[in-house]
């Protein structure tokens, strides 16, 4: 597992910026609807707490196979949730497409470098 996991976070972050500039341009919008923003914050905090709890208390972090599946599942759930919210609350923009493309880039990275 080693160095590939921190690079995954770096790849996803950089891909989010680059793909966002390509697909959306400078007209980037965020979920500003009060209800949507609250759902986004609560959902991502719940996913984060569950993910950290799984790593600390449930999963055997020394087992590479378990961690590979964890990162695959965690990335899919979080970016899938993000793209769903952007599709639901920002339908007129193409922000959800950015999240979906970054999800695909992250999954390809996991399948090539971690598996």
Automatic annotation (TrEMBL):
Lineage: superkingdom: Bacteria
Alphabetical keyword list: Membrane, Transmembrane, Transmembrane helix
Record carries keyword Protein biosynthesis: no
InterPro entries: DUF4181
A Pfam family: DUF4181
Record organism: Lentibacillus amyloliquefaciens
Transmembrane segments: 6-26, 38-58, 70-89, 96-114
Origin organism lineage: Bacteria, Bacillati, Bacillota, Bacilli, Bacillales
Keyword Transmembrane helix: yes
Protein name listed in UniProt: DUF4181 domain-containing protein
């Amino acid at each position: 597992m080693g160095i590939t996991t921190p690079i995954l976070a770096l790849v996803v972050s950089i891909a989010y910026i680059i793909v966002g500039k390509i697909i959306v341009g400078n007209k980037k919008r965020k979920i500003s609807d009060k209800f949507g923003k609250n759902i986004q914050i609560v959902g991502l905090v719940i996913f984060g707490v569950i993910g950290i709890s799984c790593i600390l208390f449930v999963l055997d972090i020394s087992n590479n196979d378990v961690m590979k599946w964890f990162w695959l599942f965690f990335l899919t759930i979080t970016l899938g949730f993000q793209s769903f919210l952007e599709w639901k609350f920002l339908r007129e923009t193409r922000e959800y497409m950015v999240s979906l493309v970054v999800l695909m880039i992250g999954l390809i990275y996991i399948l090539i470098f971690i598996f």
